[in-house]
Specification:
Elements (H helix, E strand, L loop, with lengths): L10 E4 L4 E7 L4 E4 L8 E3 L1 E4 L5 E3 L1 H9 L4 E3 L11 E3 L4 E3 L1 H20 L5 E6 L5 H13 L4 E6 H12 L5 E9 L4 E9 L2 E10 L4 H21 L12 H17 L5 E10 L2 E8 H25 L7 E7 L6 H11 L3 E2 L7 H10 L13 E5 L4 E3 L8 E2 L1
Amino acid sequence: MNETRRNTVDFAIDLGTSDSIIACFNGQEPEIIRNHLTGEDHTPSAVFIDDSGEIHVGKMAKDAVINDPSNAVSEFKLNMGFPIPFHFEKSDIMMYPEQLSSELLKDLKKSIYEETKMNIKEIVITVPANSNPLKTRATKEAAELAGFESVYLILEPVAAAIAYGLRAKKQDNGIWMVYDLGGGTFDVSLVKANGHEIEKLATSGEDNLGGKLFDWKIVDDYFTPKIMEDLNLSDFRRDNPKYLKAFSILKNEAEKAKIALSDIEEYEVTIENLFDSYDFKCSLSKNNLIDVMKPFLKTTYNHCYEILEESYLSIEDVERIILVGGSTLSSVLRDTLRNEFNRPLEYGINPLTVIAEGASIYAGTIEKQFIEPQNHKFALILDYERIGFEDNIYRRKGI
């Protein structure tokens, strides 16, 4: 990335439940900042503390969640704003969700430095559409702990709409539905497109509905009963500490099966030595996955119909459904979504990166001279009617 002095914030972070993404607006389009260790587009949202007390973030931490679950944690975004600590056993360290998120943000900040040689102090960070004051305040605190002095928070579906709005043609008009199903949260929003201008109409969603629930449903409905029967284990439950590692491994294998069954009809799960001298084997079909996902997807559809009713609209008024989040990569989800709504699906921008890209476009409209670095300032975009790209119409609400 060619680096010049920047007069606008430009950098944005999609702080995700499963993975986090960094994007930078170069004046024309967003660019993804890759992880400084792996070179991948994303950084797993996981934290691991080793025997010596050293903190690791990203892929190593994600692997440790599977192999050393008493000393590694992920999905802490879901607990932001609540006093629910995680105890790292070997180091005897206790960390709250805000502290865990701050370690993740520090690592993301390092990736930006390695790419640009800039130690940035200003950032845009995304939050779920139904984020409440507790969660937004917790995100602010995490950013402050990570060394950011000025932070702007933007709603995830709004960021996604901005990304598509930048690419919209002048003649593009109509209602878009932004369907965002990630690893741990679900949001749906209706926006009105008028050329390069985006107007938000309605939003709904749930904090604890995402791909991880599909994974655990596979574990609960297919893996656990088989293991209990094979080994005659009456106490094989997720809440039993003695099986913590086994369930972490099973959950990871369920995620692999879920992804594989998007492309194939049957998948064979094999785990060697899950327990001493016990190799676990289980065959799953695409129909099994459909049965697993169906009740969760039904809940998301109810939210879609809810915001349509709230806006006095029908699904026929929706021009396109924009797909956002890793779970929308599934062909099973896309097929059921088409069958349910019979509307065109839009995923021309990578559903995994579209939120970060849109947030960076917004960051490119924020001029640094309006930021006083010596004071900690934060802004949250929650109360607004329109977002325009040509005249930069933004209404910001400080917290």
